[in-house]
């Protein structure tokens, strides 16, 4: 388990006049076991921030810590982060079981039977225990999303990063999966950073909400604080109470 600290994190893409500041001087403390939802319009830097925390992108300035360690100095194994993306990114030619065990085979020294045991447990947790021999193409969107989540939890990570994981699902399924992700996070107590542009997800899922615009923090607070006491016009317009 681990908290996450962002210290004056800035990320620029490109040089000189063409440079884009995707993340602009963001500082944030996330507690161990906290569920934090990141919202903001398209292009506000949400995905870039997730990729920086995951160590997939290097910030231009500032420091990112997982627990006491700088992300940039941790190898992938030590980072111990599981990501879930919008487009699932399942391997199409592998079975569900292979999709779920692949990461464990690559990043741990677990035996075959230990891996089997963990995959079965995670699959049952996600309600896909009967789909282990299927390939992703044979599954519905909701089932694929469960596999993606199952693949993330099977690694028993310190941190979940979820980048719009439900945006390809229909409204009904989104509601179900919302509840399920919250239940999962409650059960596992894993620190979770969750990106969405869905107002309902923003208002209902997290302990705290982080509102971004043009890469800058606009407000950090509970969903109710942001809703009833928006810190500026942008927040008010984006998620605030209509009063
Ligand atoms: P969001 O996830 O909130 O939609 P992103 O983090 O994807 O926002 O993007 C933030 C800004 O950074 C956007 O202006 C985007 O065009 C730019 N950006 C993101 N990734 C790259 C990249 N690899 N190269 C250049 N610009 C990028
Ligand atoms: Mg994005």
TrEMBL record:
Parts forming coiled coils: none
Annotated compartments: Cell membrane
Domain ABC transporter span(s) in chain numbering: 4-239
CC terms in the record's Gene Ontology section: ATP-binding cassette (ABC) transporter complex, substrate-binding subunit-containing
Membrane topology: Peripheral membrane protein
Keywords: ATP-binding, Cell membrane, Membrane, Nucleotide-binding, Translocase, Transport
Function of the protein: Part of the ABC transporter complex XacGHIJK involved in the uptake of xylose and arabinose. Responsible for energy coupling to the transport system.
Name of the featured protein: ABC-type D-xylose/L-arabinose transporter
Upper classification of the organism: Archaea, Methanobacteriati, Methanobacteriota, Stenosarchaea group, Halobacteria
Residues of the full protein shown: 1 to 243 of 382
């Amino acid at each position: 388990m681990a908290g996450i600290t962002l210290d004056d994190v800035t990320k620029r893409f490109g040089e000189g006049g063409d440079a884009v500041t995707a993340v602009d001087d963001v500082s944030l403390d996330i507690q161990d076991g906290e569920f934090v939802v990141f919202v903001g319009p398209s292009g506000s830097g949400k995905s870039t921030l997730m990729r920086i925390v995951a160590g997939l992108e290097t910030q231009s300035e500032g420091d990112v810590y997982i627990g006491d360690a700088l992300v940039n100095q941790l190898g992938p194994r030590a980072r111990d982060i599981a990501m879930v993306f919008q487009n699932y990114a399942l391997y199409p030619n592998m079975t569900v079981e292979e999709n779920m065990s692949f990461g464990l085979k690559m990043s741990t020294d677990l035996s075959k039977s230990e891996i089997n045991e963990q995959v079965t447990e995670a699959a049952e947790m996600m309600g896909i225990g009967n789909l282990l021999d299927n390939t992703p193409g044979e599954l519905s969107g909701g089932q694929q999303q469960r596999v993606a989540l199952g693949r993330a939890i099977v690694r028993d990570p310190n941190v979940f990063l979820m980048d719009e994981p439900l945006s390809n699902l229909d409204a009904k399924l989104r509601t179900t999966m919302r509840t399920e992700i919250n239940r999962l996070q409650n059960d596992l107590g894993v620190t979770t950073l969750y990106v969405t542009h869905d107002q309902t997800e923003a208002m209902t899922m997290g302990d705290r909400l982080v509102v971004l615009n043009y890469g800058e923090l606009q407000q950090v607070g509970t969903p109710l604080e942001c809703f009833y006491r928006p810190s500026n016009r942008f927040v008010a317009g984006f998620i605030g109470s209509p009063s």
